[in-house]
Specification:
heterotetramer; A alpha/beta (596); B mainly alpha (127); C mainly alpha (110); D alpha+beta (253); C: 110 residues; mainly alpha; 3 helical TM bundles of succinate and fumarate reductases; 4 helices; 84% helix; elongated; D: 253 residues; alpha+beta; Ubiquitin-like (UB roll); Fumarate Reductase Iron-sulfur Protein, Chain B, domain 2; 2 domains; 5-stranded mixed β-sheet; two-stranded antiparallel sheet; 7 strands; binds flavin-adenine dinucleotide; binds iron/sulfur cluster; binds FE3-S4 cluster; binds FE2/S2 (inorganic) cluster
């Protein structure tokens, strides 16, 4: 029999979003108690590896309107404009709040926070803490959360199933890694903050824990996954490991060159390169400061033209920051130097860094409204696992960290209000569900008779995703991927574990993750199949143009017993009608317009 | 099932890795400093007693045993000086604005002071 | 939580550490090698050690060295495994240092 | 360090295994894994887990030296295994053990409870008498003021410093290097006013005074936090405070 514990609110995930939500509850309703379940100690969450920064309008000369416009055009008009507005309005306040909690933001000489340029943004508005922004944000949030006695943590507990009764989400079943114990953790409201799922691809900047568990849990509980087809490739990952070289390297003036030394971005409608000595370099929304989708796509074309370096770990181009000089590099982007030295053996002060596009961020996620509520009453979601949506078809760099804060806080407050209004219901039924889940996990662990190793199924899944849903897709590649996934689902049924023990069984959690990864990979592929257009990061060679007529819509994937059912919902357009998405040229025109 | 294996404590940890061995030697330098101070005090007492008492003690100091002791003591004293200077910037992180004053500068200043004092001692004693 | 008295001992220890680090190698050079080599005159030594500054310096250096050494040895013995006897060790070490300092006083101010 | 024989194709790992359900104590098991020039020890462990023995347990996540979860003893020295290259240990074998000075939960996984408790005990959050309303914007902090604590804020809680500290090995109550550095991080933050609240614990015997400046904590720290320096500075501050409290017995301590 699974043991049961009870909280007012259960938060799954101790990353930026989860911690922000927990603090929001503790601050607004100190009488409520929070259980925070995380499969790793909170400060290990993936938010820790975000490097570049967090966007928020604070400087004179910048305006909310501009941030909104950059975000919407960056999203290729697939973002909901009411959501973007709310986000942009609240981001500065949230970032300031984090400052008050002790985040060591980099500063101007006068003591105000400093901002830096970032891809796709029309002005310097990205707050940063050197190039360890996510690290500092996460540690600040975690340390701040420690002062609230009513936050109870379940560190290294793996959430494997949502408890749904009376049409409401009322808790979660989780496995304690240390003991192997399975427990029902009840809450009148549940918030999913489980982060992204880059690990369904083989080559990603994402940490090992980013397997998308929360999406799988929600999907299985009947909540739709939104805009899953939009996968962001970051143009500058290190070959081999996929470790990210932050966009800040380009924000500070780094340039991309192909094997002929050509700044090839000029050929892809991203504007004309400025001389490196030109004080205007790097120019906003131009060349290297274009959006990620366009830069990654340019790489593929260069590769087809044979203009890139070939190597066993994959083709690459050069990111050159030598002209910044040792001092700037050590001051502004020291981590870039450290990573390049360690993982490719190159000191960027003297040599260009090899880089290639790498899966980085998932625009899609659990469908939520502006208050972070999902369609399942009592279930909320925030952070990278959610899709509100502000990122549409392509997220702008440095919008995700503030998103965690804004919607994490909203989710916390929303869940708290919900919890105050809704009493706990039939505990017996919940207990019974927990027992069923406990038995399922026991079976997983026992796993006799099977032959398939989870590592090989996972590798095949990742390979299928890469060949089927890469930077460019066609109906044929997507169908092939869908078929592979269906096969993998079968193979998973006959998986077997080497490890049958209770204590810290990471093979077991690996299997639980893989089970959910297969689900969301399937949702992704089928969402991509139905979107017969090219928009933002979703590029279909068989449908090369944007089609607002048919697809200015979100796709919603619902789980069924067969293939996912895909529905559509109109994008919320308020004041910014769809337009062509232009960089380089547009910036110059736009700047002239605004008289800057 | 949780049955953690308790943490292990070693009674010989200070022999296990070079940094620990150096640490223990560094600490033991104090023993030699103290012993040497004893010898110095005896010498001073002999000086106060007069030249013949002093003469006798100089004879003793010329024995290989004393010479060996002083050689070892000197090595330990130098180990103490080097490690002590190394530690100074740790406790005193001087800063000029954003930039930290290079620890090497502070360490260097200590060596300079030591050199100056050594010269002073020699001048006072020998001149 | 008991307020620690370590600052007292530690500051004396540190003072001793500084003085010994700067001076002791030179002193060993003189008394351990130059004196036996008969390069130092008796009269010179007598003059130095009878001079008030010389007396004070000898007392200062010697007593600080003893305190420094007592403190260090006290801790290293504990670190090396005599944790159980940490109390007696501390008492013994500082008593020895005080004894040493008293001896230094009698010699220096004789 | 031995030069890489360019034809190395495999390398031997000796891994400490402890399965509480079957082992009385940790035992070393030997595995041969492929050698690749660009691999770190963690890559070898992952290979091992995926292809040879799925029962091996260890923690890891970011594989880029920032999440702090992959600390282990590599040939007896605390290391982040995601930043320890196989090529630096040629020709092997490489001994991989759980971090020293912690109880072992399973294989290479240690128990963090003690660390987490002490971590919280030093109140690692901004403490202020009064809050400035958010509408008035950020607290001003000059780059120099930031530099005053920045180094101590770089700690990734990997605990390698604890694995290297012999005092922590023998003294259960000792707060230890990273936690003391963390306290300094807040005490030195120009926005913080909580020094008084932290002092009692930090300045106690279990705080800075148990440290005998072995210094290995700083030597093994992958993020150059220099906890030994933090502790030395706190000792100086505590000493100044101690004398001051005698000079001004009626003032605030
Ligand atoms: C290398 C890199 C650099 C980036 N840089 C930037 C940047 O500069 N600017 C920017 O805006 N964005 C950046 N991003 C994106 C941004 O960092 C992420 O989108 C964001 O941190 C996600 O935060 P989160 O709180 O949603 O999830 P995470 O921080 O990933 O946390 C997820 C949490 O959920 C828990 N969890 C997951 N599954 C389970 C389960 N089954 N049971 C229990 N707990 C579970 C985990 O333990 C973890 O605590 C970057 C991303 C990467 C990969
Ligand atoms: S101080 Fe250094 S070694 Fe210690 S936990 Fe922090 S980062 Fe790791
Ligand atoms: S190793 Fe330990 S003794 Fe002090 S200097 Fe570091 S904490
Ligand atoms: S895996 Fe994150 S620090 Fe090594």
């Amino acid at each position: 029999m699974a043991e049961i514990t009870q909280h007012d609110i259960v938060i799954i995930g101790g990353g930026g979003a989860g911690l922000r939500a927990a603090i929001a509850v503790a601050e607004t309703y100190p009488d409520l108690d929070v259980g925070m379940v995380s499969k790793v100690y909170p400060m290990r969450s993936h938010t820790v590896s975000a490097e570049g920064g967090a966007a928020g309008v604070i400087k004179p000369g910048d305006s909310l309107e501009d941030h909104i416009r950059d975000t919407i055009s960056g999203s290729d008009w697939l973002a909901d404009q009411d959501a973007v507005e709310a986000f942009v309005r609240e981001a500065p306040r949230e970032l300031t709040q984090l400052e008050h909690w002790g985040c060591p933001w980099s500063r101007e000489p006068d003591g105000s926070v400093a901002v830096r340029p970032f891809g796709g943004m029309g002005i310097q508005r990205t707050w940063f803490a050197a190039d360890k922004t996510g690290f500092h944000m996460l540690h600040t949030l975690f340390q701040t959360s420690l002062k609230y006695a009513r936050i109870t943590r379940y560190d290294e507990w793996f959430a494997s199933r949502l408890l749904v009764e009376d049409g409401r989400c009322q808790g979660v079943v989780a496995l304690e890694l240390r003991t192997g114990e399975v427990r029902g953790i009840l809450g009148k409201a549940v918030i999913l903050c489980t982060g992204g799922f880059g690990r369904i691809f083989p080559f990603t900047t994402n940490a090992a824990i980013k397997t998308g568990d929360g999406l799988g849990l929600a999907y299985r509980a009947g909540v739709p996954l939104k805009d899953m087809e939009f996968v962001q490739y970051h143009p500058t990952g290190l070959p081999g490991t996929g470790i990210l070289i932050t966009e800040a390297a380009r924000g500070e003036g780094g340039i991309l060159v192909n094997k002929h030394g050509d700044r090839y971005l000029r050929h892809y409608d991203l504007g004309e390169p400025l001389d490196l000595g030109d004080p205007r370099h790097p120019l906003f929304r131009t060349m290297e400061l274009g959006p990620r989708d366009r830069l990654s796509q340019a790489f593929v074309h260069e590769q087809e033209l044979g203009n890139v370096f070939e190597a066993p770990d994959g083709a690459y181009v050069h990111l050159d920051i030598r002209h910044l000089g040792e001092k700037t590099i050590d001051q502004k982007i020291p981590f870039v130097r450290e990573l390049a030295k360690n993982y490719v053996g190159i000191d960027p002060v003297h040599q260009p860094i090899p880089v290639r596009p790498v899966v980085h961020y998932m625009m899609g996620g659990i469908d939520t409204d502006l208050e972070a509520a999902t369609s399942l009453p009592g279930l909320f979601a925030a952070g990278e696992c959610a899709c509100v949506s502000i990122n549409g078809a392509n997220r702008l760099g440095s919008n995700s960290l503030p998103e965690l804060l804004v919607f994490g806080a909203r989710a916390g407050r929303g869940a708290a209000e919900w919890a105050r209004e809704h009493p706990e219901s039939s505990r017996a039924a919940l207990e019974q569900q927990a027992d069923v889940e406990e038995a399922r996990i026991r079976d997983f662990r026992g796993g006799d008779g099977g032959t398939e190793r989870i590592a090989s199924i996972r590798a095949d899944l990742q390979a299928a995703m890469e060949s089927g849903c890469g930077i460019y897709r066609t109906e044929a590649t997507l169908r092939a991927a869908a078929e592979s996934i269906a096969e993998l689902r079968e193979r998973f049924r006959s998986m077997r574990l080497d490890d049958h023990s209770l204590a810290f069984n990471t093979e077991l959690t690996g299997a639980l993750e893989l089970d959910l990864m297969i689900e969301i990979a399937e949702a992704l592929v089928h969402s991509a199949l139905q979107r017969e257009e090219s928009r933002g990061s979703h590029q279909r060679l068989d449908f090369p143009t944007r089609d607002d007529e048919r697809f200015l819509k979100h796709s919603l994937a619902y789980r069924t017993e067969g293939v996912p059912r895909i529905e559509h919902r109109d994008v919320v357009i308020t004041r910014w009608p769809p337009a062509e998405r232009v960089y380089g040229r547009a910036h110059e025109a736009g700047a002239a317009e605004r008289g800057t | 099932m949780a049955r953690p294996y308790p943490r292990e404590r070693s009674n010989a940890w200070f022999l296990e890795r070079w940094p620990y061995r150096v640490f223990v030697l560094r600490e033991l330098s104090a023993l030699f400093l103290a012993l040497y101070m004893g010898v110095l005090l005896v010498l001073a007492a002999r000086v106060h007693e007069g030249s013949s008492a002093f003469r006798d003690y100089v004879d003793a100091l010329q024995s290989p045993l004393y010479l060996a002791f002083h050689a070892v003591a000197l090595l330990f004293a130098l180990l103490h000086s080097v490690t002590w200077f190394q530690a100074v910037p740790k406790g005193l992180p001087l800063r000029r604005g954003e930039q930290r004053v290079a620890p090497a500068l502070l360490i260097g200043a200590n060596y300079v002071a030591m050199l100056a004092l050594t010269v002073l001692v020699l001048v006072v004693v020998l001149s | 939580m008991r307020r620690s008295n370590e600052p007292l001992f530690w500051s004396l220890f540190s003072a001793g550490g500084v003085v010994t680090a700067l001076l002791v190698p030179a002193l060993i050079l003189v008394t351990g090698f130059l004196v036996p080599a008969e390069r130092v005159e008796f009269g010179r030594l007598e003059a130095i050690l009878s001079h008030p500054v010389g007396r004070l310096a000898l007392f200062g250096v010697a007593s600080l060295t003893f305190i420094h050494a007592a403190h260090r040895l006290r801790h290293v013995l504990v670190d090396m495994g005599l944790r159980r006897f940490r109390g007696p060790i501390a008492v013994a070490a500082y008593l020895a240092a005080i004894g040493g300092a008293a001896w230094a006083a009698t010699v220096a101010f004789a | 360090m031995t030069q890489a024989p360019s034809d190395a194709t495999t390398i031997r790992l000796e891994i400490a295994r402890y399965r509480p359900e079957q082992d009385e104590r940790p035992v070393l098991e030997r595995y041969d894994v492929p050698y690749r020039h660009e691999w770190v020890v963690l890559d070898a462990l992952n290979y091992l887990k995926d292809h040879i023995d799925g029962t091996l347990s260890y923690r890891w996540s970011c594989r880029m030296g920032i999440c702090g979860s992959c600390g282990m003893m590599v040939n007896g020295v605390p290391k982040l295994t995601c930043s320890a290259f196989l090529r630096d240990y040629l020709p092997g074998p490489i001994r991989v053990e759980p971090m020293a000075n912690f109880p072992v939960e399973r294989d290479l996984v240690t128990v963090l409870d003690d660390f987490m408790e002490k971590f919280q005990a030093v109140k690692p959050w901004i403490i202020r008498d009064g809050e400035q309303p958010l509408e008035e914007g950020e607290y001003r902090q000059t780059p120099a003021q930031l530099a005053d604590f920045k180094q101590f804020s770089m700690c990734i809680n990997c605990m390698l410093c604890y694995a290297a500290c012999p005092v922590y090995q023998h003294e259960d109550e000792f707060l230890g290097p990273a936690v003391l550095a963390l306290a300094q991080r807040y005490n030195h933050d120009s926005r913080d006013q909580g020094k008084g609240e932290r002092q009692e614990l930090i300045w106690s015997d279990e705080g800075i005074w148990d440290c005998t400046f072995v210094g290995e904590c700083s030597a093994v720290c992958p993020k150059h936090v220099d906890p030994a320096g933090a502790i030395q500075q706190a000792k100086v501050e505590s000493t100044v405070g101690w004398y001051r409290s005698f000079l001004a017995p009626f003032g605030r301590g």
